[in-house]
Amino acid sequence: MFLAGRFAPRQARLPSTPNREKLNYFTRTSPGPAVVAILLGLFLLVFLVIPVAKVVYVAFQDPNTGALTWVNFIDFFNTSLFRESFFNSLYVALMSVVVGSVIAMPLAYFTTRFNFNGAVLIQTLGVIPLIMPPFVGAVAMQLLFGANGSINLLLDEWFGINIPFMEGLNGVILVESIHYFPFILINLSAALNNIDRSMEESAQNLGANGFRLFRRIVFPLAMPGYVAGASLVFLKVFDDLGTPLLLNVNNMLAPQAYLRISSIGISDPMGYVISVILVLFSLFALWTSFLAMRGKEYATVQKGGGGLMKRDLRLWEKTGAYAVVIFILLIVLSPHIGLTLLSFGTIWSYSVLPDGFTLANYQEVIGTTSEYITNTLLYAGLAALIDVVFGTAIAYLVWRTGLVGRKWLDYLATGALAIPGVVLGIGYLRTFYDIEVPIIQQPLASWWVIIVVALAVRRLPYALRACVAALQQVAVALEEAAENLGATKYRTVRRVVVPLMSGGIIAGFVTSFATAAVELSATIMLVSAESDAPLSYGIYVFMQSAAGLGPGAALGMIAVIIVGVATYFSHRVIERGKREQALDAALAGGV
Amino acid sequence: MSKTRSIFRGAGILILAAGLLAAAPLVQALEDKLVVVTSFPKDLTGAFKAAFEKNHPGVKVEMLKKKTTAGVKYLQETASNNTSDMFWASAPDAFEVLKSDGLLQKYQLKATGIPDMIGAYPINDPDGYYKGFAGAGYGIMWNERYIKAKKLPAPKEWLDLAKPVYHGHVGMSAPSRSGTTHLTVETLLQGEGWDQGWAMWKEIAGNFNTVTERSFGVPDGVNSGQFGLGVVIDFFGLSSQASGFPVQFVYPTVTTLVPANIGVVAKAPHPEAAGAFIEFLMSQQGQELLLDPKIRRLPVRPDIYSKAPAGFPNPFTDKSIGAAVKFDVIKSKNRYNLVNSLFDVMITYRLDDLRAATKAIQDAEAALSGKSNDEAQKLINEARALVSAVPIDEATSLNKEYAGVFKKKRKKATDKVTGRQAEVEAEWDNMVKANYSKAKALAEKAKSML
Q1: Cβ contact, residue pair B68, A264, below 8 Å
Q2: Exposed/middle/buried for A487, CB within 10 Å: 0-12, 13-18, 19+?
């Protein structure tokens, strides 16, 4: 089946440690990486650490005397409600990783492993769940899965039963897994696509196949991608606010923090104490995932062929695979099916479907949307761009240089996950309102650029995890080869490392972009003129009145479609790049 | 050299132009812009913006929409370099917070013909910092399809919501999340007395389906049929109805009407336009806009009601709306945060325990009905008393030192407060949780005897 000779010269793995040290030697001699690291550190300091510190310092203050103290943290652990909330959050986060993995793995495996019609479409649809527009997404979920939603109304009519999909912690786990499994899907797919085909072939030559091949060779090699995705899901769910609030589950940490921070006139420090604890625990979880990945080498040298052998499926296999994929897509896209119905529906109240269908909702928003759309594309696009550039840089600095304290860049950037948007928003107002931007003479905090910065900081962890995973799969030897041939560090990164990481970088761009497009909590604090507002703010404006539900849903659909189309095109770009690479490789192999 | 000179000349022209721009307001009556921070929906703000801009061509109104809480935070954080002119929202307590932070300025209303009171509540801030422009009262809304499908009767009074038939069907927002909800809670506490009032709230809360995070979550839930009945402010019910949802709304007898307000922000960059906007809001034309079916708020000008559609509630002639309770503003203000916190500890965060205890009591009572069993009755009474017990009495709630733990912040470094909010809340929580589980056990025991 294969031309053994074509693959024979490839080396599977190189011992890693000596190379890493040699590389450290290189970087120590040039100041470039240090300068970049300092600039990145400065950025995070100014736009993350200082604003957040300005808000959460009250966690360390005695509420009565104002003196520095640990007493608030002691209060935290003495309160049964908080202890309960902590364990609930932990349980929900772990279970969401499990359920999310069950959803994501088949999708990732089928689409990267087999010749599958519409793999790009499936990968695109797989991203859609990340885009859950604020408020309307919640209403759509309740209308479908709620105690009196369509499904339960039908179940009641047919079988006289009612399944509490949306009740309590299990409801949170269900919704979180449906919402965030794309993190695993995207990163795992990128990693699978990055595996050296010769690894698989060697294993097959040695007699491994089927599930054993997957379990022993393919999955372990894709581990960086899986861990990147799974740790994102864990951190995101642990720190997530939207879903518990939408289900009105209060006994979890993030909602407890939010409810205490955002009440009028109350300055109970516990909200900030919980924020600090969220950050610390998130960093701890991240550090654990570092430990799990340490001492293993995932890089493979050959990058030409790109990805696993794709094979054709037999007819019955194909039918089975399609059935699984369609079933999963139906479940994970159901909130968006609900959203579609809501946006075209007239009145939808305690019934399986809306009373009637209309285009009026779209007509109502059409006049107001063009500005929202331009702003959303601009903000989310810029933010995602900043994220992948910074993400690549941080990943490289952390994993490829020996700079002192480099891990802290990663920890800091990832810590942003645990900062509630409202805390960051207030921090920005507090820090940047007195700084005038020259020329336009406006406070920095009310300039639209600050929204981009806030989005970039909040979504940087997504891009960073994707970039780290991608970099871990690139062999150091390739860089050394380039440098031995006389390329400068900069040129090596630009011409060798970044192109080899492209899959992960695009995965990072897509997740950052998709989630930034519907972000609301920090945005709502920072929007200072309606002309600067993005789509999510527009949805919020509509969602304040009963008459605005349909138009809000229509705006939500527009957001989903924009992000969907953008994702589709970025996948197309990757696929094309990969085909060209494969072609080059084939030509090179032929010679 | 000539280059520098031309730069100087350019700068000179700029300065001149800037001077002319600065002088412009002296010639024109109003500034060319007005920035309003508001929590109101687009249906309301859009109508007023359009009408005002038509009356005053040349003034561009910017409606900056923020949740009430976010709006207050925004004004606090941006005060040093303020760019907003007005704050326009429902909850009077949000205005109180801004007022005590010195973020509002007084305004002398020129319009006449507006009474002092709506229901039992003064329309305008006695100190003159903010003005009421519309009335709003709390009531019960329900989904007709829902109650028909579940065969529930239509409610009339607050206590109806405590009946066992409504178990699991009621929704409400928490007072700490919504200033208007807070007023409803406080109204009942004042109308029924502290102990009786809390007992009633807990009986109702025992039937809760959910405590929503935003006040709009309640009409949303009722409209979509997620739960059947909700405790809401009137315009949520009335405007949902007007938008075509199959819902109804009633005012119970014990309710209070509170004004929705507007105030001028301290150091507003466009004070003249801000004044003109208030006057417009209070004028015949402005007040009439409130009758729009998508807005549906109660005008503060009694003469407007003659133009209202049939069936529109009129608090100035129908004295049953909002007149039953004489609302004590000072009392409410002094224990504001304490009441919020108490509600959250006893109800919001322990809803599952409260619901379980309530269900057990309701089941035991159902089993008891028609039979006579003194011992079981005694156990049930005991269980009820445990559920309705409040950790502190009314005198403590009004004790300055005790309520001080919940105050926003120490005004001076010398202000001494003993105890911390978290400490007090943990104490309450332990008591409440133990009571609920004990009540459940007692009620189950009572049922097993029947």
Answers
A1: yes
A2: middle
pLDDT at A404: 82
The reply to whether residue B62 touches residue A529, judged by beta carbons under 8 angstroms, is yes
Interface mutation vs chain B, best among A264, A441, A542, most B CBs within 10 Å: A264
Best CA proximity match to A359, nearest among A373, A343, A371: A343
Q: Which residues in chain A (79-138) have CB-CB distances under 8 A to chain B?
A: 79-81
User: In this structure, are strands A442-443 and A436-437 parallel, antiparallel, or unpaired?
Assistant: antiparallel
What one-letter code names the amino acid at A389?
A: V
- β A442-443/B33-38 pair status: unpaired
Number of CB atoms found within 10 A of residue B408's CB: 15
Domains of chain B listed by start with CATH number: 28-135+258-307 (3.40.190.10), 335-450 (no CATH)
ipTM, two decimals, is: 0.78
Taking only the tens place, the pLDDT of each residue in A35-79 is 889 999 999 999 999 999 988 888 888 777 778 888 889 888 888
Residue A306 has a pLDDT of 54
Residue of B151, B152, B229, B420 to mutate, testing the A interface (most A Cβ within 10 Å of its Cβ): B420
Query: What's B271-327 look like in SS3?
Result: HHHHHHHHHHHHCHHHHHHCCCCCCCCEECCHHHHHHCCCCCCCCCCCCCCCCCCCC
Select the residue of A72, A76, A248 nearest B212 (Cβ to Cβ). Answer: A248
**Amino acid A7: pLDDT:** 36
User: For residue B215, what is the enclosing H or E element?
Assistant: none
**Residues of B with Cβ-Cβ distance to A422 under 8 angstroms:** 70
**Closest residue, chain A, to B339 (C-alpha):** A266
- Record: contact A541-B42, CB cut-off 8 A: yes
Q: Is B224's CB within 8 Å of A348's CB?
A: yes
Distance from CA of B279 to the nearest CA of A (A): 24
* pLDDT for residue B36: 95
On the question of pLDDT at B16 being above 80, the answer is: no
Q: DSSP string spanning B185-200?
A: HHHHHHHH-HHHHHHH
Q: Please state the domain extents for chain A.
A: 15-590
Task: Tell me if residue B107 falls in helix, strand or coil.
Answer: coil
- Note the CATH architecture for domain A15-590: Orthogonal Bundle (1.10)
Structure tokens at A166: 């949306």
Report yes or no: A426 at the B interface, CB cutoff 8 Å: yes
Instruction: Read off the tokens for A538.
Output: 């527009």
DSSP SS3 for A391: helix
Instruction: Provide the H-helix boundaries in B41-90.
Output: 42-55, 68-78
Q: How many helices (H) and strands (E) does chain A have?
A: 29, 2
Of B64, B149, B336, the CB nearest to A350: B149
Indicate the pTM of the whole model. Answer: 0.81
Residue A249 near chain B (CB below 8 Å): no
pLDDT of residue B1: 40
- According to the model, what pLDDT value does residue A228 have? 82
Yes or no, beta carbons of B224 and A349 under 8 Å apart:
yes
Query: Which residues of chain B neighbour A271 with C-beta distances below 8 Å?
Result: none
Q: Which candidate from B211, B223, B425 shows the least CB-CB separation from A349?
A: B223
Residue B176 and residue A263: Cβ atoms within 8 Å?
Answer: yes
Q: Among B77, B419, B423, select the one facing A430 at the smallest CB separation.
A: B77
Spell B170-191 as b/e; 16+ CB within 10 A means b: bbbbbbbbbbbbbbbbbbbbbb
Alpha-carbon distance values, A236 to A137, A180, A183, A229, A522 (Å): 18, 8, 10, 10, 16
Residues 6+ apart with CB under 8 A from A426: A55, A525, B73, B77
Burial A257-284 (b: 16+ CB within 10 A, else e): bbbbbbbbbbbbbbbbbbbbbbbebbbe
Residues A215-234, mean pLDDT to the nearest whole number: 85
